[in-house]
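Ticket #4471: complex job returned nothing on first submit. Input attached below:
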Amino acid sequence: MLDLNTYKVETKPDWCPGCGDFGVLNGVTKALAMLEIQPKNVLVVSGIGCSSNLPGFIKAYGFHSIHGRAVAVASGAKLANPELNVVVTGGDGDGYGIGMGHFVHAMRRNLDITYVVMNNQIYGLTTGQASPTSEKGHVTKSTPTGVIETPVNPIALALVTGATYVARGFSGDPNHMAEIIANGIKHKGFALVDVFSPCVTFNKKNTYEWFRERVYKLEEADHNTMNFEAAMRKAHEWGPKIPIGLFYKTERPTYEDEEPALKMGPLHKQPFPKAEDLKPILQTFF
Amino acid sequence: MKDGEVTLRFGGAAGDGIASMGETFAKVCSRSGLHVSEYNSYQSAIRGGHVWLQIRAGEKKMLSQGEYADILVPLNAQTMELHAPEVASGGVVIYNSEKLKIRDGLLKQGVRGLPVPATSTASKYGKNPIMQNVVALGGVIRLLNMNLDKLSGVLQDTFGNKAKAIVDANIGAATAGYDYVDKNFGSLNAKLNFTETSRPVMSGNQATGFGALAAGLKFYAAYPMTPASSILHWLVAYAPKFGTVVKQAEDELAVINMAIGAAHVGARSMVGTSGGGFALMTEAVGQASMSETPVVIVESQRAGPSTGLPTKTEQGDLWQAIGASQGDYPKVIIAPSNVRDCYYAAGEALNIAEKYQIPVIILVDLYLSEHIETIEADDINLSVPIERGVLAGPSNGNSYARYAVTETGVSPRAFPGEAGHEYVATTDEHDEKGIIVSDVLAGIPEHIETRRRQMEKRMSKMNYILKDIPPPRIWGPEDADITLVGWGSTMQVIKEAVLNLGEKGVKANQLHIKYLMPFHAKEVEETLKKSKRVLDVEANYTGQLAKLIRAETGFNIEHRLLKYDGEPFAPRQIVEKALEVTQHA
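Support reply: We reran it on our side without changes. The output follows.
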């Protein structure tokens, strides 16, 4: 394991004291240290939102992109250089709202990317509107009479869309979270790690206490992580008991494994075409 | 029929094989030493409807597809009814007499109908009705005194990878058509000299794809959209074996963001779309500029607004390109003017994008993207220059400032994977090291200054780019009575109008603008002020270039020829307007 200071930067996180995202920052950092990945070989990509500031708080390469597009930016980066460890970090609004399209397609592509979603069931940076994972009935600034829609179920969605590693963490248990993030990075294929990361300022409903009363670890519950149907059943458990940990893991070739242009290695390492190699193409126009 | 050239028109329904007829004939002409310019007027329908394609072939460079056909090949009754009356005097309508009739009074005086029993002739070579097209092509070859072997050669190359029986059937049908016309009609009186010089026949989109590939394109993403899709089709057929990823993504948002991600890690990246897709991309265009990530966007305009006319041409997106994305930021807009230009514009755009770490938009349109024309074989230099701009290189141990303020505004670029350069590219305002100053540092005096300096750093790139790109030059006599102003795909047709005006004794010249942003305001203003009369020629409703010229120079172009019906200009339309302006002034 590398020293955690390997990933330390001067910039201090600007999250509210007690924000769940501190736990995720520690979890991601610890996971990288456990896997002994050098900062130069990591690309952390985010979108916009409180949690999307994370790349600025970790020594590694990063791309703090625009709202909802982190997964697309990360997909392009991974396709261009599959040697990089690409980790996407962002919030539920960023990933399950405005960026939902990219999330779904990245999973069916099975790019070797780890996506850590800091799910606080609220829009924090815009001061407390409903998010795609806000529970039905949740009263927020934008839903004064309560949310009418059914929340997105990211775990179930990831399962049906083809993610090959589907897990959930909780900021209240950073060691467990670090473990599942590390396993997600190690996993060859798309890994979703949805994290309950409470917003202490704007979500007074889904608090640390609320989760502490409900969460239990799948690792301690005789759950078969290779059984898709069992994973789907666990994905729908939401009430007095809510599971965290690894729901499902399977092996499937990654997109980059099957992309013909990458057979010869990362794009930037491949030479530019020579004139004599282009000549046969010119001939096709005669 | 004009000496030294001939114009053909094929018409039918979608699915009748009109486009391949056009391409086959274009290649036959090219292999016979003729230049061609083709235009395919098609619809947004997969089967049925009405499609017609015009090819003008001649001994000199053909600057447009012309207007009236000398030879019409109608494949259905609608084409006969719509197009036969337009055939030029001295021309012919060659048609399947077992399927079509020419009603009395349909043809102009001096136009002949040439009936060919194409159904029964073609049926000897296969059941596919497309075989009738091949019979017709054989007939056309005979009418023009061309060499049947050239047609057989093109058919051989087209179907060569299929069964020999298919090649033989096609050549048999072509020969039968040739023989029928030979026996019954002989040749037209076309004055065409054939040579053995053969030239490449290419569309604008093929040239763009080829040019980008030759210039080291490593990542291309697109979502299908007419008229940009053929760049995707061409690249995916040729580029992967050169180590270029070609990716169809879920939407245009993904397309450009993927390209930005790929560029961030060091791949030369490009995307292609039309106006609607570009509208979706615009937020990320600003992202590329703010994060200083090079990316090239090919925007092939089609007739808008909204879904508009998906298969028709227009130059209506200039201001969309200028105004794309929020805020002030550096970007370049290049409008190539013909197929050859598309080939080089792709490489030039990739070079400018990487040299200045900005988004570069190549603005073409349906006409330029999709029409095919001959170019000279030596027009295509396969060793195009590749410039990657300033790179940080191996770390010297000092801390790295990705957004270091420099005189040119360009800071050395580093790529993930390099030790010692770890940084975060950000779309928030940031300091030299990429640390965001938008949150807890915003509004603090030191960072008010940071903001100002970063803004000026980015924008200063535009001054240097302007020096890198050549200003527009007048083509034609200096002391002309009228100057025709245009941009992009209309260059050749305006040039033809200038030449035609000269033949009519009207001295005209042309100012064609290729670089729309940054803009050579000084040079354009000086040129226009010297002109006696100025006519703006554009394929849009509001005169978008004229508006840009006025914004940049204060010069108001009084006369305008604006076309927004979706069809490309014919030289005659420009000539008539220029005559009106010169005679009434």
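The domain at 4-283 of chain A is CATH 3.40.50.970 (Rossmann fold). Closing as resolved unless it happens again.
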